[in-house]
User: Fold this.
Amino acid sequence: MTPEIAIAGRAIGPGHPPYVIAELSGNHGGELRRALALIEAAKTAGADAVKLQTYTADTITLDHDGPGFRLEGGLWAGRTLHDLYREAHTPWDWHPALFAHARSLGLTIFSSPFDATAVDLLERLDAPAFKIASYEIVDLPLIRRAARSGRPLIVSTGLATLGEIAEAVEAAGGVPLALLHCVSGYPTPVEDCNLRTIAHLGAAFGVPAGLSDHTQGVAVPVAATALGAAVIEKHLVLSRADGGVDSAFSLEPAEFKAMVEAVRTAHAALGRVNYALEPSEAGGRDYRRSLYVVADVAAGEALTPANVRSIRPGFGLPPKHLPAVLGRRAARALRRGEPLRWDMLAPEGGA
Assistant:
């Protein structure tokens, strides 16, 4: 595995700004017009890519109300899986228009396939990558099918054990791969985020690692960037007030733009290990503290705390020399405001 991959020519990994993915999910509310507007909003906000989800209610579940098919608790409590996915899915006949629109804007677009037929569709649309959703990480045949395309895979790890992640990585078979730390809570409480896992994921598998985030707000993606996240994925909605299946943990366009700017600023601030002066510090040393004559001193007079002190600016001797200076005698008359130098002191033992 390599700690760097590329999607549509964009390098992703350590040393590069986080690759920011705007997740549309079902926030289009069943309207193609809104889906197109979300793509435009992602572009304006500065996302590197926009991501769809490619499934139908019938390819992801059954129209059934038996045990396990009705959700309990959370945002979607009481709804059947089929009903929820029927509302949230992105119609397959929209995909060509969505791909074309993103490409016309110069925005990378790809999707999460949820079965082999979705992979087929996305291959026909020449998607440059595939995203494997957290709930599908255990579907090793799906991962193998996506990997056979040779396209890069981004795999979310929500709900997965370390062993299951390892199985998914093995199933990917060596294609370019990134792993996203993810907590599949909707929304995710901040205290559940465990962002230190990101660095562990990257080190354990030798791949770029990032965050698929379901918290509310932008603080967690910024913190993840400071911990080395190479990818940030966040849901986008035109307006939470308009609703949408994922709107509660999605960012509005202005918020998404602020997040993009913040994570890129955070990445730029990481820099490198450095103890040398930076250009912005030019001249700063001149205004550190140093030893100055603060009262007139006659030739031969002893230097004392009353006539020599550590003050700003920094053109005199370093303050560490104050103990060695006190008690010495002036080699000449010294004037208040002069920076102290060694040649201003009489030889030790002299008059």
Notes: DSSP finds eleven helices and twelve strands in the chain. The domain at 5-270 is CATH 3.20.20.70 (TIM Barrel). Residues 131 and 164 are 17 Å apart (CA to CA).
